[in-house]
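Worked Example 4.2. Consider the chain below.
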Amino acid sequence: MAIHESAAKGFSAGADAYERGRPSYSPDAIAKLVEELRIGPGTRVLDLAAGTGKLTRQLVDTGAELVAVEPIAEMRAKLVAAVPTAEALDGTAEAIPLPNHSVDAVVVGQAFHWFDGVRAVSEIRRVLRPTGAVGMIWQARDPRAQWIRRLEAIIDAADDGHPRFRTGEWREAFERVALFDPIETAVFDTVQRGDPETIVDRVASISYVAAMPEDRREVVLDEVRELLATDSETAGLGTIELPYRAHVYWTGPRALLTETATGIVVAVNVSPGGVPKLPISGAHIRALGLEGDAHRVAPPVHGGLDKAVCLLAVEAIERIRADGHQSFPGAYGENLTLAGIDWAALQEGDQLRIGGDGPLLELTAFAAPCQNQAQWFLEERIGRISARAYPEDARWYASVVEEGPVAPGDRVELIRKPVAD
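Applying the procedure from the previous section yields the following structure tokens:
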């Protein structure tokens, strides 16, 4: 899984500036993460997109076993030098090189906004133990001081649309894929202290600044130097205080079973045709399928009354990923990604009631894999989701007995087909 081009180029070129210019995280914010994620001796913690190890090194004193995943070699080399006790691995948030349910906590510093959110959420849930938790932290410059607002204007002028924390778009993956409980948050004030060149390095470490051609980058950095030398709040200072607000977020895996449900709807996925289908906030299920969804190949291959809705299990996604293939909600074209259901025991005629009084679906047949899904499989081995070889990991088609709305997080009741006497 390739990382964002700007992130790859910028963080590769800017590793030195990143190490010099990025501040340590607020001790209070780190303490909050450690507390909420229950990090300590005997726990295994993954620092995802670990960079040069700024966050990793602040977790060493917890006594936890640390694993750091970082895709950029230049950043990872500095991490290894700074935190030799951590296991450093090449990998991405969308393809974490760890076994299923093998870590107690996942932490992400200054990075989740770069991820393909749906794939990252799916992968984080896969590697976490059921009792684990994920925590994210961003330190954003506090714009209450006038000189910080001027600094932000310089930085914003250099940005041409890159993912950024402040837009809040990173939250959408957690909302559209119901694998985690609602996110909790806390905010802490902190300050970075350094000479003017440290502040310049802080700007130089921003990916899209570091990725610029040298002449353009120097124009931006010279603007920063001029600001620091002339603004009444910073001019002549040997040590400058750059205020931040440390935003901490945490959540844990959502419980998949309740007393009134067999499982839950994890994701509702649609597309104009083809794969992947993308998770949305909800849809109405009609007799011929989900509103807003379409198929590249028309009935009877896909769609129609007997193939109105396609279903897949999250547990299957995790097993398929463990075999090295790419898999995440919507990847193989399923409309509903479900969790908590004994997939291997399903049979034609079983029914699924969604949301208590929502739509009622009836299983009609297994969905055969097709070549459109080959992109997700090692050596294009689409047979990995064949019902003949892997019935527990195959997709099901369903007809719509009763129409109604569906959304991520809806409970699902499995109604077994009556057994004939």
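The chain is about 25% helix and 25% strand. The chain has a mean pLDDT of 94. Compare this with Example 4.1 before moving on.
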